[in-house]
Amino acid sequence: MVQIEMNVVFEGDIRPPGPEDLAVVADMVGQLAAYHGDTASVTVQELARDILGPDPWVQVLLAEHRGVPVGYAALTPMAQMQFGRRGLDMHHLYVAEGHRGKGVGKALIAASRHVARARGCHYLSVGTHPENRQAQRIYDAMGFERSDPPGPRFRIPLGAEA
Question: Could you tell me which InterPro entries the record lists for this protein (predicted)?
Fold first, then answer.
């Protein structure tokens, strides 16, 4: 059992994934993408590079209940250089069907806050679909402040080999 801040209790463990977990993480990423109408194309090799490689791009927290993975949070670095502030973005938060409403998501959020603090971050951010009112209520209840983006963002494709 994991008890993290704010009286969040989860009957399981939260830990970083190892190489043996990457196929399960890839499957959960696919399920989250499908929920949002996307098709995930990430491979186990790409997850190994980005999570476990010498220059990790993403920090993942894996939630397990009785040894079975039931969710994950994926954290990516952010910065506000003009203020000298570091942050983490909870880029993904996923809880497997059948385990929702049992504290898994709240425990992953609390664990993500703990990781952000341990890494010297000033903030943890998360985005959600505008119509996902349940997620918005949870984030409000857990102390997140609404911070809608100030303006449009742009990106440029760099090619498949980038």
Answer: Acyl_CoA_acyltransferase, Diverse_Substrate_AcTransf, GNAT_dom
